[in-house]
Design a protein that fits this description.
This protein is mainly beta. It is built from 6 helices and 18 strands. A hairpin with a 2-residue loop joins strand 8 and strand 9.
């Protein structure tokens, strides 16, 4: 179930949660022949279980469950997407994971002891989630739900968080669907973009040239230069760039934008925070927020 970007809905019909800015994951525990195992799957069905061995003890807490939530890595009191990206570069042993531990912030329960809960209301599912004893799973926490959305918006802005997710209390869980019953309210506007080129600088990526699908090519949205400084981010992006001989952009880029650029196959999707769109159609103040492996290139262009 996916959120729809929008303005903050208000009223007693809604619950509000922190937008953790992590990686969305389904955490499933199954038990066969007396052995319980955890499987972590992203929204694009990528199995990332081996990347987060510290979450294996969820199987010790509950032998049969499916949780929806986000994996985050906390640094200096707030989620660090750069640190999370570093954890996604390769599977790691528990000793290495302990140096930069992740936490699974559970926000929903979809199955418990063989019972499918997706047809029940959010309010019922939240009540069930909050009753589950997760004490044996030290790296799993329940993401709190609040009733005052405006206050949560203020608090998350002050703490440097990404925003708030509003969820309608009466809605069932619609797997894979983008629902008006879940509303993502970001403090800055965000757009998913496709990378069509990059500008190298002394062995590093200085800027990404981004756009959105439009007809037979990409419509240019601008250069993203901020948010690329962390080595783990540079490495993760570099692994995903596939060189191309020609520009994937539909129209010639503005003068100076393509100076020194190298083109790539439009496969990599990133989320960009910005302050709106200029009259020329480019993004104002774009900042890389995260890689969106869960969004296909043809699905780019939304929050």
């Amino acid at each position: 179930m996916l959120a729809t970007p929008g303005a903050l809905p208000v009223g007693p019909d809604w619950l509000y949660e922190v937008m953790w800015d992590g990686i969305r994951v389904l955490a499933e525990v199954r038990t066969e022949n007396g052995s319980s195992e955890v499987r972590l799957t992203t929204t694009d069905r990528r199995d990332i279980t081996l990347y987060f061995p510290e979450l294996a003890d969820l199987a010790q807490a509950v032998p049969d469950i499916v949780l929806d939530g986000e994996i985050v890595v906390i640094e200096r009191g707030v989620p660090s997407h750069a640190a999370l990206t570093g954890r996604l570069l390769a599977p790691v042993p528990p000793a290495v994971a302990a140096a930069r531990p992740a936490t699974f912030m559970a926000s929903d329960v979809l199955r418990l002891y063989g019972v499918d809960l997706t047809g029940r209301t959010l309010e019922e599912r939240r009540a069930t989630l909050e009753r589950i004893d997760l004490g044996a799973a030290s790296a799993v926490a329940v993401s709190p739900a609040y009733t005052d959305g405006a206050a949560l918006m203020t608090a998350t802005a002050q703490q440097g968080m990404a925003g708030v997710i509003a969820k309608r209390r009466s809605d069932p869980y619609e797997a894979g669907a983008r629902s008006p019953g879940w509303v993502a309210v970001a403090h800055r506007r965000t757009t998913t973009c496709v990378v069509g080129g990059w500008v190298p600088d002394r062995g590093k990526i200085r800027a990404l040239l981004v756009g959105v699908p439009d007809g037979d090519g990409l419509r240019y949205l601008g250069r993203v230069e901020t948010g690329l400084a962390v080595d783990a981010v540079q490495h993760a992006i570099g692994l995903r760039l596939v060189s191309a001989s020609a520009s994937p952009f539909r129209d010639p880029l503005p003068r100076g934008s393509a100076t020194g650029a190298r083109w790539c196959t439009p496969l990599l999707v990133i989320e960009v925070a910005h302050d709106g769109v200029r009259p020329d159609g480019t993004l104002r103040g774009p900042v890389l927020r995260r890689i969106r492996d869960d969004v296909p290139p043809e699905g780019a262009g939304s929050a």
